[in-house]
Records
---
Amino acid sequence: MPVLETALPALLLWGILGYLLGSIPFGLVLTRAMGLGNLRDIGSGNIGTTNVLRTGSKKAAALTLLLDGGKGAAAVLLARAFAGEDAVQLAGFAAFIGHCFPVWLGFKGGKGVATFLGLWLALFWPVGVACCLTWLAAAAITRISSMGALTAAVASPFWALLLGHRAGVILAVLLAAIVLIRHHANISRIVKGEEPKIGQK
């Protein structure tokens, strides 16, 4: 856990700014702007990259991935430019919460994977890279996208410890717990052997 060095009002401000940044539903905005329909009426109704891909537009999905990851990174980098590491972690965490539970969408947002990876790449890039590689490896081995996300999230506290970012371990545990909660339906399907595999229609 980082040393508390930022005044409470400033911490509150960074939490609010991080949340508002994270709550921008880029997937929803992009699909509407590109004439792909209402994302809430497509597939799972989720605002994340996987569901955007179900519109048939790889361009929209790639942009959603970049922007959802970018807002997590932006929250971290902005806070780091003007405040201490306690505010940095809070802003990143708040951006993640904003993506998963955006006030504009009745607190029904995405599952947070892209934002999770983006904030870690900005917060402490070795952990971010390790999580990305973990996601790729698990997804390649199991051919299940959600398994890659779950494995990367669960591994993140261990990566933080092993790669020398002990101050981020508690943050990693909190983020991983929320990723698991947001993927409860996927976990149920994985256990039943019903989770769709990559490339499966």
---
Amino acid sequence: MNKLYLILTLIIAAVTLNAQPQGYYDGTEGLVGNALKTKLHSIIKSDDHPSYSGLWNAYYQTDKRPGTNYVWDIYSDVPNGTPPYQFVLGSDQCGSYNGEGDCYNREHLWAQSWTNNDGTEKTDLHHVYPTDGWVNNKRDNYSFGEVGNASWTSQNGSKLGPNTVSGYNGTVFEPIDEYKGDIARALMYVSVRYYTEDSSWGTSDMTNKSIIKDWAIAMLLRWHEEDPVSQKEIDRNNAAYNIQKNRNPFVDYPEFAEKIWDPSWSVDENDCTVLVNIYPNPATSTVNIKGENIEAVYMYNAVGQLVVMLNVSGGKQSAIDVSGFTTGIYFMNVISQNGGSVLKKVVVQ
């Protein structure tokens, strides 16, 4: 995570803070990986969803264009331009459709077939959006991805075609850039909200039960960073919270995404000058740490348990022998004397 992105996320967090109940995210401090995922799951676990028919009324609060009675449809919107068509809330609900612009319906960003249609997330506002029925039908239950040679393109530029993202080359649906971050954060929300509640869920090209596959999470993290949280998302998150009493943590605190799925990110605090090198590769039996004025090193396993504490007392180099560790992912926090810290992911193979 670069400094600019960190600054932006902190600004967003400050803006949205008043919309959150006091202490809503208490207990997440210092957590990474599955430990943070588990804690967030316990915080946002809520079944106070509207009914399926109740989604239509909920959209008046969550997806109404400011100052209008139109639906904010991510599949037809043209940012800074004129949409090819717009839907009137209530009046233009699907119904049948024969082409784009006929009506809007309820799009499950996390496709219902991925959950074996078990109904758990069927009416969860944080990922069920009002979208053009025809485009929703074209998206079907395809994974999201990035398309090079499109077999079909919507009027606002959404595409269907073979995926160009490494790890999967099947057919995918690509939204326009303006809403890639929105979709990424919605899918991350579902993955955390229904974590451990997915025993009956199935698999897809993008998911395994509530787990997002590696190729997909790498892409979603990139979308998440390239398309930061917008005011639209902030307002939608607040409106959804008012209805179903839970929040999307990745809208409130975007840095949670990297802490869970890519915790190699570092934060420059108090002019921290620690440099961490893992070499010759993550499978080495020794993790070598170099840096100026290192005070201590802590290493945690994926569930947040402390497995190594090394007091360096001002030394410039140290090492941790990981040959006795079980295979898996660990998280190393290096603390400098001036109070700065660097968090790194260590893979033991």
---
Amino acid sequence: MKGIIDFHTHAFPDTLAEKAIGLIEKKGGVPAKLDGRISSLLSSMDRCGIEKSVICSIATKPSQFYSILQWSGSISSERIIPFLSFHPDDPDAVNKIRVIKQKGFKGVKLHPYYQDFSINDKKMFPLYEKIAEEGLILIMHTGFDFAFEKVRKADPVKIVEVKNTVPSLKLVTTHLGAWADWDEVIKFILGKDVYMEISYSLGFLDKKKAKEIVMNHPDEYILFGSDSPWADQQEALELFMAIGLPSSTENKILKENAITLLSSVY
């Protein structure tokens, strides 16, 4: 299929890629499939027939914003769509969100474990409101994370609280709603207007349960993602195709929904 969009990938500047990959591999205990460079991601995309990838940066401290901004501008292309990141503890975070929109980017990535917050912290809601006001997309790591203790910072109950409080927020939850918390996804998220991308989840679920989740959620709210370089894009595609969804649903998840969502930011 032509035009596939991977809504969840990571990469780093060439000068930092080796160090960054090594540190994250050590912390999470998960070996990377690529070396973390944009060139390697593009080669992977070419092999798999993926047209575009969203790059999710994570600011682990406030001072990283402008370096992420500069690098994101340098890699942005027809095929590479950078989502920026600010740190929630940055006192100037609201203005940083404004800058992201002014510079023509489509969205933001936040990670409650690497950035040390719960998604329903009171301090987060003015930031969500500003993201929604600017019409940006928010990709939020949700569920647990390999590299951290199982503290409930981004579980489905909190996801619903965020969405109910800021209904206009274009919220994309990662890992099929919440990594390793899929019973809660079924209980609280299915049927709601919350985007779920499928990265790094299908290999941990049997096909029946994965299909149950996908088929009981509005198909316009599901996106394909791999989490490359922590997962292989080709393997992610094969796991997705093995679920056995109707071709019209596959088409929506692999490209149409992403095109619609990305086009909503202008």
---
Amino acid sequence: MSHPLQGVRILELGQIIAGTYGSQVLSDLGAEVIKVEAPEGDLGRNPSVAPYRGVSGLFLTYNRNKKSIVINLKTEAGREIFYKLVKVSDVVIDNFRPGVLERLKIDYPTLSRINPRIIQCSVTGFGTAGAYKDYPALDIIIQAISGHMAITGEPGRPPVRVGIPLADLSGGIFSCKGILAALFDRERTGQGRRVELSMFDSMLNLLSYMGTMWLTNGELPQPPGSAHDYTVPWQAFKAQDGYVVVATRQEVFWHKLCDVLEEPSLTADPRFVTNTLRVENRAVLVPQLERIFLTRTVADWLERLRAAEVPAAPVNNLDGAFAEPPVAEREMIVEYDHPEVGTVRLPGNPIKMSGVTETISRPAPLLGQHTGEILNQILAMTDEQIAALRKQGAIG
């Protein structure tokens, strides 16, 4: 069986993360992704960002499986090439600021006249209209303004961002959903769609039930560290040589935990007999648990907790995370050979499907690496035509 998106062609105008992650995920599912870059290239190519042998590790990650073509969309000849690619493509993705598509004459009304089946997806910071449309939308800006930084970190400490660029990634996550829905709808209607989303909206959506509690109940959350507002114990505890997490959502797990801790008094204590009471009395209970967890190593606690079926895990750094058995079992490390840096190993595709066994992992492209190939094979241009376009500055 082929990959489910085999035959889908995506033109990616996106840069850095928000405009590249979504199409990278779709490429894992079989889509052909043509990265359309300006002569200076994607800003994500900046070698000072996650530097690896003179190349950006960020670019190596978010652009695997893609082809690169350099087109100067500020020239009429360059736009004509892009229009020809739009005619034979399914999706166009960008994360430009509002107004850029119109200035370049590649907005949805223009592209849909060229190809009524085209799906155009734009990832913005705050939307294409409104008071904030022109505000810069870097990851930390969106994490801050959307409320996420205020509820991340330890109580009484300065705000911190989520360790991964979650706001940028949210643009990719939700763009995938929108594109897949539009592709499905096009099978029924034959018509493409304009898909538009903002990172701010996406991060508000990801607040999930915490947003509900504020909007409905006026409940303003505080940064909980590793703890949980509504369940105790549900947090990290320091052991002799690291940290271990336990999560006792159901009462059965609380009783099993007490057995493992060999502290029957905890089970009998009227202040701790229900989760509601444990939440009310966390200031009394948690210090007792902290004292107990300091008596053994992480490995010792995990052996005991897992044997008793208490939800528990070590607090891994990346060395520990990528050494866990499911990583190998589920092929969550992929690699490719890059012409500039050699072997690159990176996180794999989490979406597994029946009948699909091959993992797609092709190198992130050099700038303009596939320009001639794409123009020749997809648009049937001759070498002489391509050379003339280079001379005009339409391509690179």
